From TrEMBL:
UniProt membrane topology term: Multi-pass membrane protein
Annotated active site: D140, D466
Signal peptide: none
Name of the gene this protein is made from: LOC127744101
Protein name per UniProt: Cellulose synthase-like protein B4
GO molecular function list: cellulose synthase (UDP-forming) activity
Organism: Arachis duranensis
PANTHER family for this protein: X-BOX TRANSCRIPTION FACTOR-RELATED
């Protein structure tokens, strides 16, 4: 194909900068008011006398809030997004590069195989030459059910993939395509007799596939033939299992891509490093089998929603200016089963638009663990300034190769090919020929004494391996880019109840704070590495989520403390002239903050109810799961206790539709259990209610001489906290899973009484 001079000079993508003038002004006003409030507290401290306890605590909390808001403003100041031009890609390159596709799953109960199957089928049906794609599925649960489901899915893929490409199907996850509400494609313009006949045959084939997987779930799979290896396996003690489920031996560009099942070796004597360890095994196994220069990794529930997403991402990665700058391309997370008005605050729409867009305008968006395209050579530890040829020659030295990549010569050779940026690697005519070598690099002890997880691959040291890996790349000087397409690239499922969401938030909080209190702290990345200062602030914002639990909890308890002890923490009238200003300041600050965040939600098309739900959940999350995240990391650093990786429960929508988004009883109501994570929130609520009762009946002690009593401001703040905890208030009177367990209420009552008596003692 000839390449015109004009097409060779046109960029494959453009970076568009957005100017949110109104948002900048409002954010700056909020920061100014926070600083002004802090100055007021400092200069009025001498007038406090013996009432300095709440005043000093308020000053400390507000100092933290000011710093946090500064990091947010810095992150959001110069937002940007990219526009890619896939049609230019085809005229620019003579041959499209290979891409390895990684899918990870870890528990067939919490992550049902039918979800993984739909994700895999959507990847196999990408609008990309099939001989350039290879799909690797990591099964960390070592489940014969997952292998069985993938084997059956490969048979259906021989019908599904050609059908999608023949009729240009947009939705390539079968369960979404055959959704009764997906009328746009069910009655497509291809509504010919031939199309309808094939459509019915494909639909029957998918229903048969679902039926076989469902029956296998209920019954035990016969562990014979290819499943015999599972007869002696245990969850955390089993050999490596690698199966080439389907191989595109003919190299047909319109066939079904390679599909490989990988379950790495688990040994009780070796750390397996959770998801990061699984990703590194996939990297090594794929390096031996196909060694594509680019890698796409997705979670098992994140199916392809835009079949042209590979071309869009490659426009960014293959642009001449990006080769020595961009390490990875991150696509946003969106969810097909999100409940109406986002009652659990987990759909992250505005986070990706404003925070994600803002950080894209600095050094690049965070890596969030899924929906991401990577350069293999960057995962192998390459820095932007590193000379590739010299680096690959150094691998020839035996003193270095074992330390970096391990002792297997075949893999070191493949790594050298990837680092040199060669488009082709001597691939095996038969993938099965590399199985023995692949099993060796998937062994539990292969990484011992190497740089895997430290300088190479996905980074170890935190359950938030995604943020840590992205931070490491940014610290080396790499950039990243976001890729937002229409339609959105990937869609996944989100937590459908409060218990799952809070457990997920606790894991995030622990993993992120673990990064902040480690050698990988973003502050060190700026001082000793190439992490830009504003990018450092962006990483501080996200890695200190759990640290916010301390000031937020203290600040939430301050109004109740002041009401109970008849003291105050909000500015009062000190002099007639300045008094009016001091009363208005905190109220104006709160109004400005709420208006600023509300504006962001409305501009992204979300409702006011969605804004309130997210505002409420941000407070509940900070004062409940993040408290335990903070305590967990504190105990870990003291070497008293370590934390475990928690797998998030995923559910396929029932009846192909999921929960009725308008049915409040089906989704959106808080669910409680006996976990201690609900104790802090229940305690805070009971303390506020106690304070309001004391105020209502006038049971407050007299204000001490020289001091002022609590006033209307403290009362409003206490009611404000109760509104945030309205789901907990309803839970006090409900029964079953929607009610707070009696044991939790008793524990919280004891803590609330202790707080009231302690407040009276230290007044």
């Amino acid at each position: 194909m000839g390449i015109s001079e004009e097409s060779s000079t046109e960029p494959l993508y453009e970076k568009i900068w957005v100017k949110y003038t109104l948002s900048r002004v409002m954010d700056s006003i909020i920061l100014f008011l926070l600083v002004l409030l802090l100055c007021y507290r400092v200069f009025s401290y001498d007038d406090m006398n013996h009432h300095s306890y709440p005043w000093f605590l308020a000053f400390m909390c507000e100092s933290w809030f000011t710093f946090t808001w500064l990091t947010i403003i810095s992150t959001k100041w110069n937002p940007s997004y990219t526009i890619s031009y896939p049609h230019r890609l085809f005229s620019r390159v003579a041959e499209l590069p290979s891409v390895d596709l990684f899918v990870t799953t870890a528990d067939p109960v919490l992550e049902p195989p039918i979800i993984t199957v739909n994700t895999v089928l959507s990847l196999l049906a990408l609008d990309y030459p099939s001989n350039k794609l290879s799909c690797y599925v990591s099964d960390d649960g070592c489940s014969p059910l997952n292998l069985y489901a993938l084997v059956e899915a490969s048979k259906f893929a021989k019908l599904w993939v050609p059908f999608c490409k023949k009729y240009n199907v947009k939705t390539r996850a079968p369960f979404r395509y055959f959704d009764s509400n997906n009328n746009n494609e069910a009655t497509a313009p291809n509504n010919s007799p031939e199309f309808m006949q094939e459509w019915l045959a494909i639909k029957d084939g998918y229903e048969h596939l679902c039926s076989k997987i469902q029956n296998a779930t209920k019954k035990s799979i016969m562990l014979d033939q290819e499943f015999h290896v599972f007869s002696t396996t245990q969850l955390n003690n089993h050999p490596t299992i690698i199966k080439v489920i389907w191989e595109n031996k003919e190299g047909a560009s319109d066939g079904v891509p390679h599909l490989i099942y990988v379950s790495r070796e688990k040994n009780p004597n070796h750390l397996h490093r959770y998801k990061a360890g699984a990703m590194n095994v996939l990297t090594r196994v794929s390096g031996l089998m196909t060694n594509a220069p680019y890698i796409l990794n997705v979670d098992c529930d994140m199916h392809v929603n835009n079949p042209e997403i590979v071309q869009h991402a490659l426009c960014i990665l293959m642009d001449p200016n990006s080769d020595k700058e961009v390490a990875f391309v991150q696509c946003p997370q969106q969810f097909y089963d999100g409940l109406k008005d986002d009652p659990f605050g987990n759909q992250l729409v505005t986070v990706f638009v404003y925070i994600g867009g803002g950080v894209s305008g600095i050094q690049g968006i965070y890596y969030v663990g899924t929906n991401c395209f990577h350069r293999r050579k960057v995962l192998y530890g390459l820095s932007p300034h590193h000379h590739i040829q010299n680096g690959s020659k150094d691998l020839g030295k035996s003193s270095k190769k074992n330390i970096i990549f391990g002792s297997l010569e075949e893999f070191v050779e493949s790594a050298a090919q990837a680092l040199e940026g060669k488009k082709t690697f001597t691939q095996n005519a038969n993938l099965c020929n590399s199985l023995e070598a692949a099993k060796e690099v998937a062994a539990s002890g292969y990484e011992h004494g190497t740089d895997w997880g430290n300088k190479v691959g996905w980074m170890y040291g935190s359950s938030a391996e995604d943020i840590l890996t992205g931070l490491t790349m940014h610290t080396k000087g790499w950039r990243s880019e976001s890729c937002v397409t229409d339609p959105i690239a990937f869609m996944g499922c989100t937590a459908q109840d409060s218990v799952v969401q809070i457990a997920q938030s606790q894991r995030w909080g622990s993993g992120l704070l673990d990064i902040f209190f480690s050698k990988n702290c973003p502050i060190f990345g700026t001082i000793f590495g190439k992490l830009q200062f504003r990018q450092c602030l962006a990483y501080i914002w996200v890695t200190t989520w759990a640290l916010r639990s301390v000031p937020e909890t203290c600040y939430a308890l301050l109004p109740a403390y002041c009401i109970i002890t008849n003291s105050y923490f909000l500015p009062k009238v000190i002099h007639y002239y300045y008094g009016h200003f001091s009363l208005i300041l905190p109220n104006y600050e709160i109004v400005r903050y709420n208006m600023s965040t509300l504006l962001e939600y409305l501009k992204t098309g979300l409702s006011m109810r969605s804004w309130w739900n997210n505002l409420r959940m941000s407070r509940i999350t900070a004062m409940n799961p993040w408290i335990f995240s903070f305590v967990t990391i504190l105990l870990k650093k003291l070497r008293i206790l370590d934390y475990a990786f928690v797998i998030t429960k995923k559910e396929l929508p029932s009846n192909n539709e999921g929960l009725d988004k308008n049915n409040v009883n089906a989704g959106g109501r808080f669910i409680f259990n006996k976990s201690l994570v609900f104790v802090p929130g229940t305690t805070i609520l009971l303390v506020q209610l106690t304070a309001l009762i004391i105020n209502f009946f006038g049971w407050q002690p007299k204000a001490r001489s020289g001091g002022q009593s609590s006033g209307f401001g403290e009362l409003i703040c206490s009611i404000y906290v109760v509104l945030f905890y309205l789901p907990f208030l309803k839970g006090l009177f409900r029964k079953g899973k929607y009610g707070i367990p009696l044991s939790t209420i008793c524990k919280s009552m004891g803590l609330a009484l202790f707080f009231v008596h302690l407040s009276m003692f230290i007044v």
